[in-house]
Amino acid sequence: MTSRLESLREEYQALRAQDLSLDLTRGKPSAAQLDLSNALLDIDLGADYRDASGTDLRNYGGTDGVVELREIFAELLGIPVAQLLAAGNASLQLMHDTIVFALLHGLPGGEPWFGQDVAFLCPAPGYDRHFALTQALGIRMIAVPYLADGSLDLAAIEKHLADPAVRGMWLVPMYANPTGSTVDEATARALVAMPAAARDFRIFWDNAYAVHHLSDDEPAPLDILGFAEEAGNPDRVFVFASTSKITQAGSGVSFFGSSPANVAWHKKHTSVQTIGPDKLSHLRHARFFGDAEGVRAHMRKHRELVAPKFAIVDRILTERLSGHATWTKPSGGYFVTLVAPARTASRAVELAKSIGVAITPAGAAFPYGDDPHDSVIRIAPTMPTEAELEAAIEALCVCVLLAEAELEASGR
Ligand code: PMP
To answer: What domains can you pick out in the chain, each with its CATH number?
Structure first.
């Protein structure tokens, strides 16, 4: 009788013989999703390049961004228009620059962070690029593992905030990358009300997936700036968002929202950097959407393309990995987190790579790449076709099972 390990090895060799070339690494929109916004490319601004107030958007100026577009996203994000800036194509750059401004100039009423011991709390697993950016700017990262039920560990966060070195915290409040979890109102209110030893402590509230619902339930974003004000900490939160995964990822529009004092601070430092953002891109986006309802309708078209892919992932994981692993079933966003047996994730990813299936490196979703249990694998289902996705997830499952069987056989 062949052992389980042998039969999995045979299955694995059969996959190798297929010469696969599949990629589940990055949460990029598929070409079909990008096509949904092709009308953006055809908008003829030649005849009308002015905003509603008649300003010629071809010229310099308008540092806040085009108001028509800010109005649309103010409604979607639940932020007053006056407190929401529209900027360049990448919110990640806004996050980077915000931290650089804090390092070099300090936050309103605070000292520059540069030269001090500065730490950020990093709920983990989290977004790898947040962590790469934090590390590159010399900021210490403190991983805060999620609780078993997937919620934030508020007690641990509160304890860390007693340390004056803790100046920031990353948070993707809706359909988080990669866990898919969403912060509820009680948690949000607790976060903005908690005492913090550092007066300039800020939550980097990265609402990248605020409108990316995968079900009929389309919750509105929490009024986090309002909660912070009510809690007596009006300046605690920086909100970031973008149209990257709404229209065309490489040429969208990013947004920064915060308290009036923080917005004024941000504008002061940005004004040294640029005479204004690409307002023609803002105008194109405003005309393309029309209004907030236009964005919602557009996102339902994304859902039609994306939801079947999440269903494929869940179906195959259920068929192959029930009893061996657990995984998230997100109701929005771009990712599924697979929790493989402890001490198998890096081996499974390595096995997948050597048969032509690229998976995000194990550990990538943790500060310093350090997954304490070596169990988390991030699956990004949007980019491949449905057929490619099926083949990739089938192969990944074999790799996870083989890694587990190898570990058991090794007796370690
Ligand atoms: N934040 C999160 C949580 C993301 O997942 C992504 C994209 N993967 C980004 C920000 C990047 O956004 P942008 O394209 O606006 O820089």
So the answer is: 4-27+295-410 (3.90.1150.10), 50-290 (3.40.640.10)
